[in-house]
């Protein structure tokens, strides 16, 4: 799939798109772009304040009254099932054409953080990230397949799973939950890509989006500090990839990576690469790491200054200069 070619983005006009985790971050950016193109957007999220505000904004900016917020907890099948039912009732066509399983969180608690004493009771690890990022996607997938059966054979029935570059990469213990959940989403995609099951609609299609790190609320400060100086992927590239996958009905079984632009930007991982992902990820990560040293150093100072404060950066630089002076005097 060539992401440099033009496509008819307005092909999603009048379609109903249900986005989980659609009240903030990439999900909100997806919602805004889809509304601009004339789609009817259903925002499923647990954050009612952000969700209602975004739905109101979309209605006012587009002049389309069919943008709604639906309070949704993807970790609860009951809540998610009710959200799908509501989305169907609010859809002008009484159908849902695209479901974007985007809801996700992260937790920087390390799996290897254990009690000081080996004789002390070991508390259970946090599992909220696994529950929302993986179980929530399983729930979303099941309900999407169920409701897609209502669609007429001429209508689209598209499920887009949002994974991550963490679906392929190794990660430190502080990202164990997140990485495990995104590996799980990739495994689900593998299964759905081969067969959606006997009860799935014939026209059902599935794709997967795997962004590299993007500066959104899901990225914790610890991770931002670790990534200081590293070029991030662009939110607008991810959104354009989503719209393309929704608009181009020939897009089936595609796994699309959104890398930093210096590492190729939006690109497809083909099926052979999906079988052996190490060559692909090695190539992309190698390109990311190959960025100019000076450019990365400048970005590092800017990122750390923004996150930790410029006084902290000034103090660190002063200490560095003092240390170099002392070394030179020896």
From TrEMBL:
Among Pfam families, the record links this protein to:
adh_short (PF00106)
Q: Name one GO cellular component term.
A: cytoplasm
Listed PANTHER family = 15-HYDROXYPROSTAGLANDIN DEHYDROGENASE [NAD(+)]
Keyword Oxidoreductase on entry? yes
Membrane-spanning intervals of the chain: 309-329
Q: Which organism is it from?
A: Ascodesmis nigricans
Q: Which family does it belong to?
A: Belongs to the short-chain dehydrogenases/reductases (SDR) family.
Name the keywords, alphabetized.
Membrane, Oxidoreductase, Transmembrane, Transmembrane helix
GO MF terms held by the record: oxidoreductase activity, acting on the CH-OH group of donors, NAD or NADP as acceptor
Q: What is this protein called?
A: NAD(P)-binding protein
């Amino acid at each position: 799939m060539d992401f440099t070619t033009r496509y008819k983005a307005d092909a999603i006009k009048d379609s109903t798109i249900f986005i989980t985790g659609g009240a903030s971050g990439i999900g909100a950016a997806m919602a805004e772009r889809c509304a601009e193109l004339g789609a009817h957007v259903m925002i499923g999220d647990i954050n009612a304040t952000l969700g209602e505000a975004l739905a109101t904004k979309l209605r006012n900016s587009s002049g389309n009254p069919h943008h709604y917020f639906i309070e949704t907890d993807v970790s609860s099948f009951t809540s998610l099932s009710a959200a799908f039912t509501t989305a169907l009732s609010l859809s002008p066509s009484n159908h849902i054409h695209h479901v974007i399983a985007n809801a996700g969180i992260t937790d920087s608690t390390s799996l290897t953080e254990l009690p000081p004493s080996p004789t002390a009771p070991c508390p259970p690890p946090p599992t909220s990230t696994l529950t929302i990022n993986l179980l929530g996607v399983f729930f979303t997938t099941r309900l999407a397949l169920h409701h897609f059966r209502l669609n007429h054979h001429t209508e689209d029935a598209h499920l887009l799973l949002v994974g991550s570059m963490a679906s392929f990469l190794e990660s430190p213990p502080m990202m164990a939950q997140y990485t495990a959940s995104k590996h799980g989403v990739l495994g689900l995609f593998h299964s759905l890509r081969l067969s959606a099951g006997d009860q799935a609609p014939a026209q059902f299609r599935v794709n997967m989006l795997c962004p590299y790190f993007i500066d959104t609320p899901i990225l914790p400060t610890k991770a931002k500090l670790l990534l200081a100086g590293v070029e991030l992927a662009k939110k607008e590239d991810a959104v354009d990839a989503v719209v393309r996958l929704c608009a181009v009905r020939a897009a089936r079984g595609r796994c699309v990576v959104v890398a930093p632009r210096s590492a190729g930007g939006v690109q497809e991982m083909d099926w052979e690469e999906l079988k052996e992902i190490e060559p692909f990820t090695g190539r992309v990560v190698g390109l990311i790491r190959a960025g100019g040293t000076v450019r990365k150093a400048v970005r590092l100072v800017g990122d750390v200054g923004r996150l930790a404060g410029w006084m902290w950066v000034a103090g660190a630089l002063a200490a560095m200069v003092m240390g170099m002076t002392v070394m030179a005097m020896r």
